[in-house]
Write a structure and sequence with these properties.
With about 450 residues, the chain is of the alpha+beta class. It contains 15 helices and 22 strands. Bound molecules: ligand MV4. Ligand MV4 binds next to strand 8, strand 10 and strand 13.
């Protein structure tokens, strides 16, 4: 039985996890860096323990210190949250060796899915559609060029160690292939310590749709629907929603079954996400599997009326899933806006600093997951997300109306945030029509920047 959980993370997700622990009568322990001593998760957890200096490399990424802290406080399990060590198979392995329950799948599953070439091979082998491309890693630029010529341009070069858009390069013709291939491989080696790259046919304007799966330790797997994460900028998700307006119920069923099959075939345990790209003609293709709780898990929670973090804890405790696939039904429509301490007017420059004033929205259909408060200082060492605003309604229009009004109530003084940008997107006719593709933000910023330039010229 899990009595005490050490939360190996910070910020809003640490808060999210300790809330689930409290509701279940499980003791929670926050770890913190010297920069996070004043943070909300430190103040609200049952215990808190300092693990090092401000930089992530000296604190939240130090597996030995996390394990020592867990042993010191008598924790039975470690929840890694997202980012940091959440998809680090060595850390999961160290936990296994110490008989400290790592809340997530086995280190073996994390390792397999962490290599995007291996994940693609497994998905293909068990019958999921994958994008035409290389079978494994490409040995050299000559083999790469031959294959790219055979597939036809454009092609995309991806790193085995990458994921989430890191280290990707698109190639539009044979003339530029070799050079781009070599740069991609060098960058992959430097960034991931793994120079292995693969290629796929490049899909134009795809939709990014991911399925949330739940798997208990007894081999039962279900999916709890999809999230549409097409609205991104530089591979950073900005607004997510569930369900996707782009899927028919029959396509949803087909993709959900594929996601469940993959989880079953790899002996998955815990919550996981199977990512797909869907093209204009509604062909779907597996791209990656994420073996962690994701930032945007909240839209699934609100759209499906389910607590995913509580399920993570129950599954880690060896409990069986009590819900069956046929019992899973939508509870409405949910949208999440990521509130980042960034200045959209200055090319999304992060702007950490002192929050002088802070007022959260409320009322029907509104949820905020945030560790911010009036007087809090956002440290410059970590990512710039300071909260997530989730709005739900019985229809998408209702969720949009609630999001708009909640964004107007959300008052943050002292720093720049993505709130004004999200307000503009909620009013945008293209967004409101639904079915945005991964190219939405580029077009949106061009359209609206264009307005700004015209206005400046008039002055
Ligand atoms: C692609 C693609 C087009 N064709 N793969 C970016 C994130 C990573 N998980 C996969 N990504 C893409 N892979 C092929 N074969 C286009 C993207 C992509 C993208 C995907 C999801 C959301 C936003 C995106 C923005 C640009 C490119």
């Amino acid at each position: 039985m899990i009595h005490k959980v050490l939360i190996a993370n910070r910020g809003e997700i640490a808060l999210r996890i300790l809330r689930a622990c409290k509701e279940m009568g499980i003791k929670s322990v926050s770890v913190y860096s010297e920069a996070d001593a004043q943070s909300l998760p430190v103040q609200l957890a049952d215990e808190a323990i300092c693990i090092g200096a401000a930089s992530a490399a000296q604190s939240y990424l130090k597996s030995d210190r996390l394990l020592s802290a867990a042993e010191l406080v008598g924790a039975d399990a470690i929840h890694p949250g997202y980012g940091f060590l959440s998809e680090n198979s060595s850390f999961a392995e160290q936990c296994e060796a110490c008989h400290m329950k790592f809340i997530g799948p086995s280190s073996e599953t994390i390792r397999l899915m962490g290599d995007k070439i291996v994940a693609r091979k497994i998905a293909h082998k068990v019958g999921l559609p994958t994008i035409p491309g290389s079978e494994g890693a490409l040995s050299d630029e000559k083999k790469g060029l031959e294959l790219a010529n055979a597939i036809g341009y454009p092609v995309i070069i991806k790193a085995a160690g990458g994921g989430g858009g890191k280290g990707m390069r698109t190639v539009y013709n044979a003339a530029t292939f070799t050079k781009t291939f070599c740069t991609a491989r060098m960058e992959a080696e430097k960034a991931f310590g793994n120079g292995a790259v693969y290629i796929e046919k490049y899909l134009e304007e795809p939709h990014h749709i991911e399925f949330q799966i739940l798997a208990d330790s007894h081999g039962h797997v279900i999916h709890v629907g999809e999230r549409d994460c097409s609205l991104q900028r530089n591979y950073q998700k900005l607004i997510e929603e569930a369900p996707s307006t782009f899927l028919s119920s029959s396509l949803r069923e087909k993709m959900g079954k594929a996601a469940v099959k993959l989880a079953e075939k790899c002996g998955y345990e815990g919550v996981g996400t199977v990512e797909f790209l869907v093209d204009k003609k509604r062909n779907f293709y597996f791209i990656e599997m994420n073996t962690r709780l994701q930032v945007e898990h909240t839209v699934t929670e609100e759209a499906m009326g389910i607590d995913l973090v509580q399920w993570q804890l129950r599954i880690a405790n060896g409990e069986k899933l009590t819900v069956r696939q046929k019992d899973i039904r939508s509870a409405g429509h949910a949208i999440e806006c990521r509130i980042n301490a960034e200045d959209p007017e200055k090319d999304f420059l992060p702007c950490p600093g002192h929050i002088e004033f802070y007022h959260e929205p409320g009322g029907p259909g509104v949820r905020i997951d945030s560790h911010a408060y009036s007087g809090y200082t956002i440290p410059p060492y970590y990512d710039s997300m300071i909260g997530k605003l989730i709005a739900m309604g019985s229809t998408r229009d209702e969720a949009i109306a609630r999001m708009s009004r909640a964004l107007n109530e959300y008052l943050i003084g002292g720093i720049q945030t993505t709130i004004p940008l999200c307000k503009k997107i909620m009013l945008d006719p293209v967004y409101r029509a639904g079915g945005v593709t991964t190219h939405f933000m580029k077009n949106f910023l061009q359209r609206t920047d264009g307005n700004k330039t015209k206005q400046r010229r008039k002055k």
